[in-house]
Amino acid sequence: MGRGPSSFLELAILSVLRSKTPQNGYQIRKTLSNVCGPLLQFSFGSLYPALGRLEERAAIEAIGTSNAESDFISTGSITGDSATKRDWLKDLVPQRAFSSERSGRNTKSYVITDIGLKLFSELVEHVPLESERDVLIWLSLIDEASIETAVERVNDRIASLTGAQRAKSRANSGSHSSKSKISNVIDKRMADLVADEVEFLRQLVQSLSNNEIQGEVTSVNFGKDN
């Protein structure tokens, strides 16, 4: 199931469309920017192929069109609007379609299907969580109904980190004296990063288990002074 970044983008698209409100590519990207901030970086060059893959799998469907002009946000300056709109329209559609869309013609709007809802649930359970960043993106895309899954998957991440660190420590125990100073510094820093992430994830599990949540999972108190 897991395909790394592409799976995360598909999960993100399906998460947005679960609102049942039809959205085009520009609106989906804007929503994800608000939800995930800088954590989930992607371009229209990757968004539209992901939409195409989901449409081919019948996870989403195009229900009509929406006027691209209505989504444009003015800068308040005639000169600024001209430059911004030119760049915005280039991003609004895939590059190959830009020549036919640059005048602001209609673009597809999408809704999620029953197949898409099932795929969303599968991705929530199986999308790879290989870093703290992955965990944060994933948490921002799921909802309160997935708290039990969140606790289980975060605990799996903790177990993976601690197991890998123990194995590395055993491997290094007999070769410490032969390693260079820079290698020892790197090993120490990596161990500290793992320890920090494990501590963060343990506090996260505690917050999730105690239902310290209001609405979306993203409102969990992630602070380290709880």
Topology, element by element:
Blueprint: H1 5-17, H2 25-36, H3 44-56, E1 60-67, H4 78-92, H5 98-101, E2 106-112, H6 114-126, H7 132-141, H8 147-173, H9 181-209
> How large a portion of the residues is in β-strands, by DSSP E?
5-15%
Low-confidence parts: 68-81, 90-106, 213-226
* Overall pLDDT level: 76
* Percentage of residues assigned to helices: 55-70%
The top-level CATH class of the largest domain is Mainly Alpha
Name given to the CATH homologous superfamily of the largest domain = Winged helix-like DNA-binding domain superfamily/Winged helix DNA-binding domain
The secondary-structure element order is HHHEHHEHHHH
Tally of individual helices: 9
Domain count, please report it.
Answer: 2
Radius of gyration: 22 Å
Main beta sheet: 2 strands, antiparallel
Q: Give the strand line-up of the largest sheet.
A: 1-2
- Total strands: the figure is 2
Output the CATH topology of the largest domain: Arc Repressor Mutant, subunit A
CATH architecture of the largest domain: Orthogonal Bundle
N-C termini distance: 35 Å
The secondary-structure class comes to mainly alpha
Characterize the overall form. Answer: elongated
Commentary on this structure:
The protein contains nine helices and two strands, in the order αααβααβαααα. The protein has two domains: 5-126, Arc Repressor Mutant, subunit A; 143-219. Strands 1-2 form a two-stranded antiparallel sheet. The longest helix is centred in the C-terminal third of the chain and has 29 residues, at 181-209. The protein is mainly alpha-helical. Helix 1 crosses helix 3 (44-56).
